[in-house]
Prior knowledge:
This protein is α+β, with helices and mostly antiparallel strands. The chain has helices spanning 37-41, 76-81, 83-96, 110-117, 186-196, 198-206, 253-270, 319-340; strands spanning 11-17, 22-27, 32-36, 74-75, 98-102, 132-135, 150-153, 165-172, 181-185, 208-215, 218-225, 227-229, 235-238, 276-279, 286-290, 294-298, 310-316. The protein has 8 helices and 17 strands. The longest helix has 22 residues, at 319-340.
Amino acid sequence: MAKGEIKRTEVKNASLLDNGQLLSVEWADSHHGIFPTDWLRGHRFDQSQPDPIEGNRPHLWGHDVMSTPHFRMFEFDEVMESDDALYDWLKMLFNLGIAVLKNAPIEQCQQYSLQKRLGYDSPAPSSSGILNQAKLHMKSYHPVYTAASLQLHNDLSYYTQAKGFQLFHCKQQVTGGGGDSLLADGFKVAEDFRCQNPESFRILTRIPWEYKLAIDKNYHVARREVIRLDTDEEVCQITINDICRAAMLRIPLQDVKKAYVALKEFTNMLYHPDNLVRYKLEAGDILAFHNHRILHGRLGFSMKADTQRHLETCYSDWEIVSGRMRNLKKQRLRKSQGENQK
Length: 342
């Protein structure tokens, strides 16, 4: 038999043990195996048990999402102490791509506590460190650290594998007008765009734009389509970031104008009042969102000597959300089965 070739063997004998809870199999080559029948029932190829969170699908939303039954605010302590509250918060985050925790302690590093609640030791490092202090610097030229408005964008566009889970902990908010966060559901807008302008949609799913960030000892470069589709042709990632979008566009000259026109049309739709949420974070709020789906920005505010707006931000893999949901859903199922057997 050639190296690496799998030897075919047949079942010689099979029998049930332990009142049908185990299946004993004797193979023709004399080796023997015992398999739990519950496990076998759950692994029947196309009749296998479904993913515990399979029924949760993205719920697309517009400007009024925070006033719909699909959305509610959660208390930080509630989510930290109750598994049921944690599951409900994660489920909303998974479905909507956004969720808010209220009344988190103002002290630094609350994201560490939340990450540990989700099963990870700490947020992921990025070019800004593990925790980034996004606050006003009077002499900074980077728009994040000024009082200027920020256009809608996705973070870490210059990473080949951009982190999908993002947290903003509001530690201080400016008084008066401005400083509001802007949010848009990129998946919803992309689906509307697909219907209303299919040719421009096709262009944005095929042309890769280049993003870069040169900082200290790192020089990050990534190329990605504005609208990324999965194998089922469903939208799975949006990437827009004018701050980090490079001047380089590596496409044929005849396609350049069409690419920019398509990008402008899509951007205009993102900013349509029907698609834009405006929410002013308060001190103690933690805004969580799906960085591959939700675009975020900020209204500008007046620059004064006593003015400060301070967000502590961090990133993690989006899988931390789906993974913890599965764990909690299985706990619920086991608890329910145990109660039914009483």
